[in-house]
Amino acid sequence: MSAREEILGRVRSALAATDPSEAPVPRGYRSVVPAGDVVELFAERLVDYRAELTRCTADTLPAALADALGTAESVLVPDGFPWEVPGGVPDTGQSAAELDRLDAVVTLAALAIATTGTIVLDHGRGQGRRVVSLVPDRHVCVLRTDQIVPGVPQAVAALSPDRPQTWISGPSATSDIELNRVEGVHGPRTLHVLLVSS
Amino acid sequence: MSATFVGMPAFPAAAREALSDTQLRRNLAHATGTIRAKRAAVVGEVDEWEELRLAGAAIKDNTLRHLDEHLLRLEESLTDRGATVHWARDAAEACEIVASIAKQHAVDEVVKVKSMATQEIGLNEALAAQGITAWETDLAELIVQLGDDLPSHILVPAIHRNRAEIREIFRDKMAAAGRPAPDDLSDRPAELAGAARLHLREKFLRARMAVSGANFAVAETGTLVVVESEGNGRMCLTLPEVVVSVVGIEKIVPTWSDLDVFLQLLPRSSTGERMNPYTSTWSGATEGQEAHVVLLDNGRTRALADEVGRQALRCIRCSACLNVCPVYERTGGHAYGSVYPGPIGAILNPLLRGTGVDDQVDSLPYASSLCGACFEACPVRIDIPEVLVHLRSKVVDAHRSAPKAEAVAMKSASWVLADSKRLGLAERGLGLAGRLLGRFGRKVMPGGRRALGRLPWPGSLWSNARDVPAPPVESFRAWWRREGRR
């Protein structure tokens, strides 16, 4: 008998005497929304994760972008990223080793979650491949305030599993040494979000 | 400590040794205390926490009740999206599947993102036996692997090590595994993490195959979810050409939208954060990568057949139960002799491996004070104390042919307790013993009572791992006769 048939057979015999009716799943949590302004809450929680945050408008964005990139000389720019980037290098499918030699990356995001201070990339236009927001040491992400949803349930409902996703909450971090939080292990050591009022 | 759990002594012997290690106890008390406080703070922010727990438990229970259907659906959706699905009855079969995929691609090293399932099946050792090196890339796993040590916690496997010990391991062992530690490495956590970053990046950049586990597998869409902090998971999942994910069959959730419960419960329960720094989700083969999924039984169907114990398969490996457990806090994880330590390990190991087969496994349901803190902390409401008691009865049943000293003692106790005259006589005898022993007992316990030393056999079976309080000089019933009538 194949492993597949044997495992399925074991599952069925384990469940033979079990009542197959399903318990109701309470879903009231889906309508819970945080009190107050979700944009302010997102900003507070993002900074709590030691990410950097700059509030700007469509007009001040180019200057904020240049500031956030600071001394970075080479910046990966994914297809569809809608602004001019100083030092910008278009994404031509560079290998990880080539990405490792770049100073920074700029991306858009699919949405952001206020209660957790999370940005979510589904790697659509302007967000780049999964590796580009991982290998360079500085990640600058441009987010509009109308992309912020209150909580995790609203984010899951808005996102499609058909696209791979990367949920990012602050810079890469570890708590493995005496449970002290240290920023920057394998991902970018700096996450800078430019929050554009819409 | 050698790098295998095989041949570990039963819990009472292992715990006795761990308890005498003051460095270990200091490291553990600091770590579990810190994480308890963090978790309590972020759980307290969520008003609907109890409803989330109920929803998480209900979703998992419903899935387990129809596990065969969900498995078939997962297989179909994964296959439709370009992944190759393999089935593994046990550890050896799972390891063989991973090794054969490596050989098909002529790969002699793989990078690994921390995975309880691959630790459970001993994948690193099995690959090594076939000439394939597996590099652990989680910082704590790296510390454990370089130190030729064993993990002692589900979430923070090197929780038993402090920064000075970690510095020594990096300085002594990194060079033989690749890029050496910097000469001037201090014991500051940021510098230690920086050394790991440099050491591992050269491995990530050249790796052609990665092995992962999965926190969740969505039957409806074939989506796998990996939750992590450091970015090593993202490195493993996005850089290599081939990704092999070893997934226990209990990791299934039915639909994409069910993840809205678990992505709230897991981070707050495990690291005490509102959200972990990185979560990756992908459905089948993406961005030209070759994707393999190994669906692992290895005892899970045995656990499923146990109607009381089945709830342990709800476990999402958050480790909240470890951090609140008074037994774990004092003995650490190694004493449990398994990759699954703490309260969940005390039930999961006997459920996966069966009772009455191995003395070490049979000792685990007794490694608890039944205080119930683990149930309170569990985000999917596994009633660990209930399962512990159930498994104790199974262990006793398995040993019925040769009665244990404890069973004999219980039988004679029930004879004494069944009759008030017999009890009165016994109490008078105990009072006399108490007066004598209270004077000569070996040490003073909290509250001022004296404790006895080791009892002669067969009492030693009990007293080897416990302080035996001197009997009280007066029984409650005697005190009541004297005082209660006033």
TrEMBL record, chain B:
Protein's GO biological process: lactate metabolic process
Residue stretches making up the LUD domain: 73-287
Q: Is Glycosyltransferase one of the keywords UniProt gives this record?
A: no
Q: Which Pfam families match?
A: Fer4_8, LUD_dom
GO MF annotations, alphabetized: 4 iron, 4 sulfur cluster binding; metal ion binding
Q: Which UniProt keywords apply?
A: 4Fe-4S, Electron transport, Iron, Iron-sulfur, Metal-binding, Repeat, Transport
> Where is the 4Fe-4S ferredoxin-type domain positioned along the sequence?
312-382
Q: Does the keyword Iron-sulfur apply?
A: yes
Query: What Gene3D superfamilies does the annotation carry?
Result: Alpha-helical ferredoxin, NagB/RpiA/CoA transferase-like
Q: What is this protein called?
A: (4Fe-4S) cluster-containing protein
